[in-house]
Input
Amino acid sequence: MARVLAVANQKGGVAKTTTVSSLGAALSELGRRVLLIDLDPQACLTFSLGLDPDSVELSVHDVLLGRLSSGVAVRPTADGPDLIPATIELAGCEGVLMSRTGREHALRLALVDLQEDYDFVLVDCPPSLGVLTINGLTAAHEVIVPFQCETLSHRGVGQLLDTVHDVQRLTNRELRVRGVLPTLFDGRTAHAHAVLADVAGRYALPVLHPAIAKSVRFAEAPGAGRSILATARRSKGADAYRAHARVIADVAEPRPAEPRPGPARSAERRPPDPRSAPARSVGRTSAPVRQRQAGPDRLEV
Ligand SMILES: Nc1ncnc2c1ncn2[C@@H]1O[C@H](COP(=O)(O)OP(=O)(O)OP(=O)(O)O)[C@@H](O)[C@H]1O
Ligand SMILES: [Mg+2]
Output
């Protein structure tokens, strides 16, 4: 059965969409079947994964209104995950849903048919606490809260948690907060560490490590219609999302690569040539053996 993760924070520009596309690609790299849902009328996830929202015909809007079975709206992406795209029509969907009974359950019900087709469903929520975000939270097992560690960022986290508690009470008892994901993080400043410690302590929220450092690589990726895992494969940002994907998918961290045998060591193993002079003892090479770190760059906060 698919595990549904909503990525939500009503504050704008905190990397919700970036987290969904990067984490989705990272889970896909691990061989997991992933579906992404663009639940934001801005359709940034749709655009950033290479689809033009203006030319999308079947979207999440039709799915939420029950006009279409969810599978029909699914599109493949070059990064690996499938996507149910959004268009600007989704903005009008909130109004229509408001007049419907069971409006909070529209996404949860739409996903029932896809439960067996995916291991993970990631939902990109809009920057509001309206009926679309409540649909995302009602459909989810867990919510991840991307959080930019700046003054005033914590304002709104309390409101988001109040909404989560309402959802737990009224529409989805299973929902749990996976934690706060520090994004656009500048670990060189004491300020960022202080804000993160404050929000984690104030609301008793787990902090998800590693933090996602600020990097221009993230801003470049959407223009190419791919996630950072494709446009900057070996970047720290890509590796940080890979580290989160491994935790979510419960996959062990890769072990550091074994040092390659150097020439002196291979000479040691070669059988002695009977035509050559008596073998000299071959000591250890004095050159330091470089060991490549294959693990992710951990940015402890
Ligand atoms: N770690 C990062 N470093 C630098 N820029 C980043 C990082 N993560 C995201 N960005 C950039 O920040 C901007 C906002 O990111 P994103 O669209 O993911 O936020 P959002 O929370 O989904 O925004 P909205 O609330 O409008 O939906 C984008 O231009 C994105 O490329
Ligand atoms: Mg977004």
Remarks:
- The domain at 3-249 is CATH 3.40.50.300 (Rossmann fold).
- The longest helix spans residues 16-29.
- Residues 97 and 103 are 5 Å apart (CA to CA).
- Residues 16-17, 40, 44, 124 surround magnesium ion (ligand 2) (CB under 6 Å).
